[in-house]
Amino acid sequence: MDPNIYRIVDRSEQINQSKTELTSEEQSAISGYLAKFIEHFKHQHL
Amino acid sequence: MKGTLISSDYVKDYDGTLKLIELNTDTQVYTSFTSSLDFSDIHSAVNDNSITEFHVVWKEGLHRSLKTIISESISANCPGVTTFSHTKVSKETLYPVVPTDNSDKFILRLAYDENAILDSTYAKKNINLYNLYVSASEEDSIPEFYYSSSEIGVIDTLSSSFGKNSVYDYIPDTVLRDDDVQNTFQFHKDVSTSGSAYFKSALLGQLPEDKSNILQHYCFHSSSLNTGRVFSYREYGVIYDTDLKYTKLSSGRVKALFDFPTGSIVKSEPNVAAQATEGKHFYEYTTKQFKKYMSDGVLRDEEVLLTGSADNYTHIISASAGTVVSSFHWDGLPDSDDITIVDEWFQTGSEIPATSLHSTASVEGLRSNFSPNQEGTRFKVSGSSDWTYVGGKTRVLVYSQANDTTSFIPLDDITPNAGLYVHNIAAFPENNNELLEITHVENFISETRLEYIELDVEPDDVFFIKSGDQNTRFVSALIHNIFLNK
């Protein structure tokens, strides 16, 4: 008996999932979070 | 010099601020990002340090195309590099053998390594990542959350934003993550009229005690209302050198695979204030892509071939220890339950070795698992109207026309209409080369939970499942013993 299917995933859509560029504010926030991570990581482990 | 590829994911909260939700190694670069990868800092590190060998540690199924992109980029921009080498790591490997580092070598690791603190502490366990920010009093960088364990204690930053989504009937208020299991999220919605404090109390009372749970505020921003889909933000980068430099390779905003629902999303359990949403909505409330190799085994209602006649099948859920099933002694196939050995085995050509034999095997063990988020995988062979449902991790014996090899391949790595065939072993020995092309492979989401059954059969480690019906002639796919690494 086949399962009752809710959605089929289009593999090609998944592979070709588009992206949009970040705003400068968004990019700046991400860069800041990663810089903090590396700083705290160094503090803990180096 | 060593480097590690990472990705980090962010969501936008109700107030427009981004929150870091996870950091990953062993990450796959989405196709939409590959054309904008910037390796210039890596080129500089290689050229400035007189590197002559560039080495990549990678996994098939995740990193093949990226390895090629890196190779071409290094070749075009690093004239001092005379050797581009690589280590291919099996899908299941936790401890890859990484070459010895030295001053004229750059080793870029794309694959997971349990020995690396970055991987086993911060990528594997979100609570450790979150706790790093909490310990530094930088809770604003991450979603508000609640966590409790004997090891770490109680962390509770759920406060003002909790309940901010109550203005949307179809957007969850919280996401509950099992920190021990990938991609297992549960979303909850406050259906009470008693306020967020009551909802929080009700939710905490429902938390299973035996799991490593992180209860997070579900971050949602009104900008998603314009498109009907939620967004997340992703950046790929490399952490490298002994002083942990970081370089961004690419970043961008991606959307969910599906629109979020606009109708009722809860299961409507009576007298429950914190209602769990239906599991089928996972790919509407996250921007995750279908992750490979998440389920192993055969869907419980599929049929396994018993002995006696060519159409003597039983549902795999009906099998038990001692059940005798049809098996096959494929001459040359190593007798091993080590998945690495199974994955490395292949034979040239499609013909079944004439010295092979039909055989029987006894079921020595069974176990079941439910696929995360009600997701499944299925395939169909030429001439068949029936789908066959096995987990994406399940190894199916396949002949590849392009490589002229026969080997076991996880269903998630099988592309339809790509010259990949299953053997009709029922026709052996009269016909030792009857092949049926795999014409369809699909990922799907079920309305209900999907239970997969794994069998351990011995002495030959293979059994058959029904994979089609051409008129009255049965066709079976040969499945490798799924109790691997037992």
Sum up the structure in keywords.
heterodimer; A: alpha+beta; 2 helices; B: 486 residues; mainly beta; 3 domains; seven-stranded mixed β-sheet; seven-stranded antiparallel β-sheet; 37% strand
Description:
The complex is a heterodimer of chains A (46) and B (486). Chain A is an alpha+beta fold. Helix content of chain A is 59%, strand content 15%. Chain A has 2 helices and 2 strands. The longest helix of chain A has 22 residues, at 24-45. The model of chain A has no long low-confidence stretch (mean pLDDT 88). Chain B has 486 residues and is mainly beta. Chain B folds into 3 domains: 26-115; 121-285, no CATH class; 298-480, Hedgehog/Intein (Hint) domain (Endonuclease - Pi-scei, Chain A, domain 1, Beta Complex). Chain B is 13% helix and 37% strand. Chain B contains 8 helices and 28 strands. Chain B has helices at 31-34, 40-48, 64-77, 117-123, 126-135, 196-206, 282-285, 339-344, and strands spanning 2-12, 18-24, 53-59, 83-89, 105-109, 145-149, 153-156, 174-178, 185-190, 213-217, 231-240, 245-255, 274-276, 298-299, 303-305, 313-315, 324-329, 347-348, 357-370, 375-381, 388-389, 395-400, 405-410, 420-423, 435-446, 451-458, 462-470, 473-480. In chain B, strands 1, 2, 3, 4, 5, 11 and 12 form a 7-stranded mixed beta sheet that branches. In chain B, a hairpin with a 5-residue loop joins strand 1 (2-12) and strand 2 (18-24). The longest helix of chain B is centred in the N-terminal third of the chain and has 14 residues, at 64-77. The interface between A and B is large, with 37 and 54 residues. Strand 2 (19-20) of chain A pairs antiparallel with strand 12 (245-255) of chain B, so a sheet runs across the interface.
